[in-house]
Amino acid sequence: MKGEIFNILSPAALKIKNPGNGKGEFRQRPGPYRVGKRFLLFTGAVVLLCSLLMVSRSEAVDLLAELSAGYDSNPALIDPSDGSGFSIYALGAEHWVGLSEDFALDLSVAGRYQDYWSVEDNYRLQAGAALSYIVAEGRFLPSLVGEVAAYRDALIEADERNEAMVGINADWIISNRLTLGFEQSFRWLGYLNWAKPFSGKGQGRNPDNEGKGGKNAPAASPSSWQLPTAPGKQPSGKGNRLLNTLYPPRNNVLMVTGVDLDVFMMSPLTGRLYAAYGDLSSSLDMESFREVQAGAALSWIPADQWRTVFEATWYRTQYYSVPENITRVRRTNYSWSAGVQISRFWGDFELFGQVGWKSGDAPLDYESYTQTVIQCGLSYSF
Amino acid sequence: MRTILFFLILASANGLASNALAEELFLGRVLSVDRESGKLSVALIDGEDNPDTLNKGGKSMDVTIPKDRLPKRLLPGNVIRIWGGVSQETGALNATYLQASGRGSYGKDPTGVRRRIGKSLSQFGGRGGAKGRGKH
After folding, report:
1. What CATH class does A58-381 carry?
2. I need a labelling partner for A381 at 20 to 30 A (CA). Which of A93, A240, B110, B121 fits?
3. Could you tell me what percentage of chain A is helix, strand and coil, using 3-state DSSP and rounding each to the nearest 5?
């Protein structure tokens, strides 16, 4: 029963099953069906946006509606890649409650649906809470935070999961020009599908012909253990077999420790430096990793009602529990990302354009990938 | 043509930087907000080494700002950064820009840009947005 509910929730349930192969694979929907669905989604989003305009303002509840469209050169983070146009429909609400002079509670819910035009879709629903306490006359602001989320992805089914997170954040306003932030969180990631090792997005497995397992899939038969290997790589018997076996849905815990420093340089110019350490403990040992992340962001207001933000991040990921006999997996991987966004504000509306770029190592078979995302959209918040 | 364009950009940037450098940065705690008139009352916590404002540390001071530049959620008790200068005539702080502190959509990510970039590019939680087993 539980599985059936998840099936209904999954974007895959919206696709047409191929009755011929009996393996639960999906074929492309006919063109008119996809266009019709996109038209309905777009129309629904516009109607919702218009109806929100008519809702009276509330001091305690903040609402956000966002509609954007763009092109993603590599939705699955693979090489070679298949690009696709996309639309994103997002809604959010935030409610602030002042419990006392020093205590405040922030409650939020948000949903985001990404409709890829030529590959499968994904969406994320989440709800969160943050309990903040004011210390030192507002110069130190610690918060206890929690979040639950559901992520569904019909393109990379191995990534479908439910999440729960608890953590603490703290902001320390050191001076008029500096703020230091700290974050410590623990996130449980409960995956829904059986999957071969390293089937997540950007890990080297092509979703079209590998990695899919389904919710109650048995282990792969010996006849399916042999996979093509990267040029120049020799399969290593048992190690190769381990990589081509379907394993039960993972139960992972991700611990993240992060610090950031905001620097207020000039009124139109604010900088941010950040670093984080992540430790993922996976129920499938070989997928556990430690990751270091460092980055910088620069926010620039070139003119009234305009804002430009540049951001760049570097990652180093180390899979420290890969068995010695598996030679097809690169243990230490690097990736880089950068993005720029330009926004123009008109009251409660924001028109934005964004370009993002990412390049990285995919550990399986020493693959690598690049991704470019271009999008523009309209956001309404009140 | 390119030389003229270069000098125009340089002049604009120079003017922008000069205006920005002429402003002072103050740290204050909000005591009251009047959204209709764009006036705030704040207690100054920290500021530049300006004798006009140093002696007001911890005391109430009036701040004026164009209404459309007021952060959306601004409540008594919030600590804010105020860019501007003190009027010699009124003694009020004429602000050109306010920045709220704290996390969430009204603090470190007022325009949602980090959230959007994070959704498409980040690998795990923390500084970006998305979370996952590996890459999401």
Report:
1. mainly beta
2. B121
3. 15, 55, 30
Q: Does B14 touch chain A (CB under 8 A)?
A: no
CA distance A261 to chain B (A): 11
Q: Can you give the pTM of this predicted structure?
A: 0.78
- Is B23-101 a domain of CATH 2.40.50.320? yes
DSSP classification of residue B125: T
Query: CA B125 to CA B116: how far, in whole Å?
Result: 14
Nearest CA in chain B to A169: B103
Which chain B residues have a beta carbon less than 8 Å from that of A189?
131-133
Q: Are A295 and B127 a contacting pair at CB < 8 A?
A: yes
Domain boundaries, chain A: 58-381
CB contact under 8 Å between B134 and A198, yes or no, is yes
* ipTM of the complex in this document: 0.70
CB-closest option in A143, A185, A313 to B103: A143
**B-interface mutation test, from A66, A132, A140, A267, most B Cβ less than 10 A away:** A267
Instruction: Give the number of other Cβ atoms within 10 Å of residue B116's Cβ.
Output: 27
Q: Where are the domains of chain B?
A: 23-101, 102-136
Single-letter amino acid code for the residue at A181: G
Q: B-chain residues within 8 Å CB-CB of A151? A: 132, 136
Q: Are A158 and A211 in contact (CB under 8 A)?
A: yes
How far B90 CA lies from chain A's nearest CA (Å)?
23
* B46 touching chain A per CB within 8 A: yes
pLDDT (tens, 9 = 90+) of chain A, 382 residues, equals 434 333 434 444 444 333 333 333 333 444 555 556 666 666 666 666 665 555 545 456 888 899 999 999 999 999 888 899 999 999 999 888 888 878 889 899 999 999 999 999 999 999 999 999 988 878 899 999 999 999 999 999 999 999 999 999 999 999 889 999 999 999 999 999 999 999 999 999 887 665 555 565 554 443 333 444 444 444 556 668 889 999 999 999 999 999 999 999 988 899 999 999 999 999 999 999 999 999 999 999 999 889 999 999 999 999 999 999 999 999 999 999 999 999 999 988 999 999 999 999 999 999 999 999 999 999 998 7
Which positions 73-112 of B are in contact with A (Cβ < 8 Å)? 73, 75, 77-79, 81, 83, 96-97, 99, 101-105, 107-108, 111-112
As a whole number of Å, the end-to-end CA separation of chain B is: 46
Whether residue A236 lies within 8 A of chain B, CB to CB, comes out as no
Q: List CB contacts (< 8 A) between A171 and chain B.
A: 101-103, 107
The dihedrals phi and psi of A19, each to the nearest 5 degrees, come to -70, -15
